[in-house]
């Protein structure tokens, strides 16, 4: 899929070989706050997830792709979720696993590739992202990529330090009616 290949990274479907990476990422408590996870995942549950990851976005309302570098190592995940074909919209989320791979433009390139895919191949009208207040790196990233702040859900996410606001960002595909 040439549309999912960039300068530094490419996006690909989940493979059985991704089990250990998925297990490590999904059980990283440092990202539970942004992922909505509240308990660890077993390898068995993740294996079942991988076995069903081939299902169509129109069926499961989600698309999860691996972000891979030029050395074919999976460095993160990017998702379309809450896919709504009638209203032609979906949420988008991204995580780069290791901090040494962050702030290098990899997340920006992955988001750009997935936005292009969503707007051209899936013919979506809009994408949105939910970002916790205080996650300045993600806020900057999505704003840089043309997402606009459209609202705040007050005290939306409960964390160990109390409730946090969640900011909603939106990008509308101006090339579609």
Automatic annotation (TrEMBL):
UniProt entry keywords in alphabetical sequence = Transferase
Q: Which SUPFAM superfamilies does the UniProt record give?
A: Acyl-CoA N-acyltransferases (Nat) (SSF55729)
Which InterPro entries does this chain map to? Acyl_CoA_acyltransferase, GNAT_dom
Q: Tell me the superkingdom of the source.
A: Bacteria
Pfam families, alphabetized: Acetyltransf_3
| Gene Ontology terms for molecular function | acyltransferase activity, transferring groups other than amino-acyl groups
Chain ranges of the N-acetyltransferase domain: 9-174
Name of the protein in its database record: GNAT family N-acetyltransferase
């Amino acid at each position: 899929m040439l549309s999912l290949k960039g300068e530094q990274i490419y996006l690909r479907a989940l493979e059985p070989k991704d089990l250990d990476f998925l297990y490590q990422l999904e059980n990283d408590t440092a990202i539970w706050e942004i992922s909505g996870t509240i308990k660890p995942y077993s390898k068995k549950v993740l294996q079942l997830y991988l076995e069903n990851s081939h299902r169509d976005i129109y069926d499961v309302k989600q698309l999860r792709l691996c972000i891979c570098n030029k050395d074919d190592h999976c460095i993160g995940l990017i998702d379309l979720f809450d896919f709504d074909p009638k209203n032609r919209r979906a949420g988008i989320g991204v995580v780069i696993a290791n901090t040494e791979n962050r702030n290098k433009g990899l997340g920006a390139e992955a988001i750009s590739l997935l936005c292009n895919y969503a707007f051209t191949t899936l013919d979506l009208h809009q994408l949105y992202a939910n970002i916790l207040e205080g996650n300045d790196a993600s806020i900057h990233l999505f704003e840089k990529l043309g997402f606009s702040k459209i609202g705040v859900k007050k005290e939306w996410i409960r964390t160990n330090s109390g409730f946090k606001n969640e900011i909603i960002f939106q990008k509308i595909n101006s090339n579609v009616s």
